[in-house]
Amino acid sequence: MPISVHDVMQLLCRVSEERKMKAAFRHSARGALVAGATAFVGGLVGGPPGIAVGGAVGGLVGAWMTSGQFKPVPQIILELPPLEQQRLYDDAYAIIRNLDWTDLAQLTALVMGNTAIQQQLLATLMNYLTTELRAEIQYEK
């Protein structure tokens, strides 16, 4: 039975919510820019030793800036642009297409009662988040 992209996103939200998944995005280009800029300024002010000090300070500030804030994965899923949601839908639908269900509530119950399918959906979701969005995944305790 065909299911809408929105419904599959809701299913993925439910599965990731159950595992209390969070993700953060690293902005390495911004961190590198800060590190390079402080090394440059350090070089202008203090010559070669200033480059070393500026690079070290900039590296620390850049690392702090790129650590990112963790957001709940369901929030990230729902904020994805339609094209990205469609890509994630295609991967998830390949896992659930052979299940016998009539509506989203029944499909959700089937998935939540089947650990193997949950694991497959979580693996698909983690793969998408880490490869496509370059996110770092964290599970709440």
Tally of individual helices = 6
Contiguous low-pLDDT stretches (5 residues minimum) are none
Number of domains: 2
Largest sheet: 3 strands, antiparallel
Helix content: over 70%
What is the overall shape?
Answer: elongated
Average pLDDT, all residues? 83
Strand content bin: 5-15%
Strand order of the largest sheet: 2-1-3
Number-wise, the strands total 3
Radius of gyration: 21 Å
Which structural class best describes the helix and strand composition?
Answer: mainly alpha
Distance between the termini: 36 Å
N-to-C series of helices and strands? HEHEHHHHE
3D architecture notes:
With 141 residues, the protein is mainly α. The chain folds into 2 domains: 5-22 and 72-133; 27-67. It has helices at residues 5-18, 28-66, 73-79, 82-96, 104-112, 115-132, and strands spanning 21-25, 71-72, 135-139. The chain has a 3-stranded antiparallel β-sheet. The longest helix is centred in the middle third of the chain and has 39 residues, at 28-66. The mean pLDDT is 83.
List the helices and strands and how they pair.
Elements: H1 5-18, E1 21-25, H2 28-66, E2 71-72, H3 73-79, H4 82-96, H5 104-112, H6 115-132, E3 135-139
Summarize the structure.
With 141 residues, the protein is mainly alpha-helical. Helices cover 72% and strands 9% of the residues.
